[in-house]
Design goal:
about 110 residues, alpha+beta, two-stranded antiparallel ribbon, 3 helices, about 10% strand, globular
Length: about 110
């Protein structure tokens, strides 16, 4: 994954359209994260052609929707976990991971 020196903090206006779809079933911060995740994955998919797990290399991961099986869902993983001081919206701290790899890594730091 290319490294960028950008810290992206989503603006509420940027996330509004995606958050509206969530119908207030989640707290606002979680809605913002879900909207950011979808925008980030869409941008990566556009730039790289497909989504690939950073850890196991599984390709053709899909953005999370109701009809995608869990093992094929693309998630965003924080390389330095939030619990250990990692930045939530820093794109240098984010990688695409399949759901099983993300769950296996949990809050451990990847080096």
């Amino acid at each position: 994954m290319k490294k960028h020196n950008i810290l992206y903090e989503p603006d509420r206006a940027d996330c509004h359209a995606a958050a509206v779809k969530l119908k207030d079933q989640y707290p606002k911060e979680w809605q913002n994260w879900l909207a950011f995740r979808m925008m980030f994955l869409t941008a990566l998919e556009t730039m790289e052609g497909s989504l690939k797990c950073h850890y196991c290399g599984a390709d053709d991961l899909q953005k999370v929707t109701e009809d995608v099986e869990p093992q094929y869902q693309a998630t965003l993983d924080h390389v330095k976990p939030l619990a250990k001081g990692g930045a939530k919206y820093d794109i240098n701290n984010l990688v695409v991971a399949c759901r099983p790899c993300n769950a296996k890594k949990a809050d451990k730091e990847f080096i």
